[in-house]
Amino acid sequence: GKECPLPPRRDGVVPTRLPNTVLAATVDGRYRGSEFPHRGGLYGTLDGGETWIRISGRTGDIAAIEFPNNKLRDAPVRDVVADFSGLTDKFYATVPGRRVLHRNDPSADEIFTSRGIYRSVLGGMIWQDITGDLPAPLLNDSIRIELAVSPVGDHPVYAAIIGRNRQMTGVFRGVTGADDTVTWTQLPNVP
Q1: Strands, DSSP E only, in the chain?
Q2: In the list 21, 36, 147, 187, which could disulfide-bond 16, CB 3.0-4.6 Å?
Q3: How far apart are CA 131 and CA 145, in angstroms?
Q4: Residues 63-76, mean pLDDT to the nearest whole number
Q5: 1-15, 22-36, 80-94: which has the minimum mean pLDDT?
Q6: What is the pLDDT of residue 2?
Q7: How many Å apart are CA 101 and CA 54, to the nearest integer?
């Protein structure tokens, strides 16, 4: 089918080093008052915003780009950040555990089984799940997972998990090892 001309409301936007290429994280699947047949997700544009490709949940050939092993599932994406410090650009994206539909009724929440943190080293088009050993109860209850990449040292990625009660439930530091896996360590004494 025809791609939408613009992504739904953006919750995080990051440019890439490629000309006219931008990634946009979206949680809300609404567009100009009508409902898409999908929830939000990660979108990308290769032409400066003229057209947008939905990356979340996509496999196969899209705009002449092959997506055979994309692990970024069909779900809302809350945040996207970039790390341009190395020879290979890295992008990180987050999928929350839930979306609150009725503040006083947790049973009405929309639940996302693909919750966690994802990384791309291929221009933001193909993603791998790097959630690893982050605590499942915190992820399942999360309404947001916010990211930041340190500009110094080994450029760890930091993840702040915000629970359904809108309180920060944990902050974690992720470091990529020699085998390309990410090890997460919880920071003590989170405010």
Answers
A1: 12-15, 22-25, 30-31, 34-35, 42-45, 53-54, 60-62, 65-67, 79-83, 90-95, 98-99, 110-111, 116-120, 128-129, 142-149, 157-163, 168-176, 182-186
A2: 21
A3: 11
A4: 72
A5: 1-15
A6: 39
A7: 23
Run of H or E including 140: helix 136-140
Q: Which two tokens stand for residue 93?
A: 């994206």
Cα–Cα distance for residue pair 170/161, rounded to 1 Å: 5
For 27, left (φ over 0), alpha (ψ -120 to 50), or beta? alpha
**pLDDT of the residue at 125:** 78
Instruction: Note whether 59 and 67 are within 8 A (CB).
Output: yes
d(CA 95, CA 74): 10
Q: Which residues contact 5 (CB under 8 A, 6 or more apart)?
A: 50, 51, 52
pLDDT beyond 50 at 10: no
Using the structure block, give the residue that is written with the tokens 């490629």.
Answer: 18
How many other CB atoms are there within 10 angstroms of residue 148's CB atom? 14
pLDDT tens-place string over residues 96-121? 988 777 777 777 777 788 899 999 98
- From the list 12, 179, 27, the residue with the least C-alpha distance to 100 is 27
